Amino acid sequence: MPQSLHIDPASGTAAKDPWGPLDALLRALKPSPALELERIDIDHFQPSESNAWAVSVPLAFATTPIIRAKLNLPGVTLSLMRTFPRVVRGYRLPDDLLVVVPMDDVSSARINGEAIGSSIVVLKGSPDCVGYEPQGRVIAIVRLRRQDARESWMSLKDGCHLVDPPPASLFWLRRLILTAVDAAAKQPEVFVSAGVDRTIAGSLVNMLKPLIGLPSRNARAHPSLGKYRTIVQRMEDAVRQDPEGTYHLTDLARHVGVPVRTLQNASKTICGQSPRRYAHILRLWSVRRQLLSGSAGVIVKTVAMMQGFRHLGEFSASYKAAFGEMPSETLARARSKSRRMAGVS
Length: 345
Fold this sequence. Notes:
It is a single chain. The protein has 13 helices and 14 strands. The N and C termini lie far apart (46 Å). A 7-stranded antiparallel sheet has the order 3-5-6-13-8-11-14, covered by helices on one side. A 5-stranded antiparallel sheet has the order 4-7-12-9-10. The chain is of the alpha+beta class.
């Protein structure tokens, strides 16, 4: 096992150690023939999620790259990454099963309003879920092909399932994941030629099968959580489809079709933000994405007003507070990059 992390087998949780946390392990990783390593800035992270049809809304901007290590094993894809403060919605998995394993002791994350804690999240089919991560955490994502876990999930309903593994099972699963990533980075030739990749893939499937079959904790969730999740999804859709018409809270509640108090409760429960704050974040990121396109017809004032920002001074101040630069600087940088790329091509 890599010396970068100690895990307590009694609780399954990561413990602090003198060699450094999981962040240090991720930063120290080097790509190899067996290990893909991506460093993605937060502006370009969302397209990288497209293979699972997920959409992340960052809750805070950061200049530190998101590091994702990826192993393509026989029948299994294993990724290790640190997330960032965000709301993530969606997932469409017609052929695969996605298992999200918490690798640290961050306990603030929720999915569909339910605290995740040290639970494993199992996603099947087209789960209609909303995840909330108020702080970054280290997770492993195991993507299983249908044929490799068929017995365990034949009776599993499509959706999002929270499973509480025994602490010892979580300990050994985390240990296997870290060992696999470490071996792929440091001994790639042995990893493939000696069949270590196939052994690890088989071990992952065998460890996960009984866990996938455990009772789902969120099956006992309060009925209001499902209602709240739907309200938040309708709120997001309303803000994206009619940003000007949903600028005021009363207008937003009317578009969603619920009282203001219900909208507030749903937004705080599911995505940890007041509806006004969350709608503001959605609008700011929509403006930023358009500015980052660098298109000739993009004008800061026009884009801002189309997103419901009627006071340009307040908008510019909010934008700079969120992203560390003025909107005009974002647009100028994007256009400069487009010109450089055009010159190269």
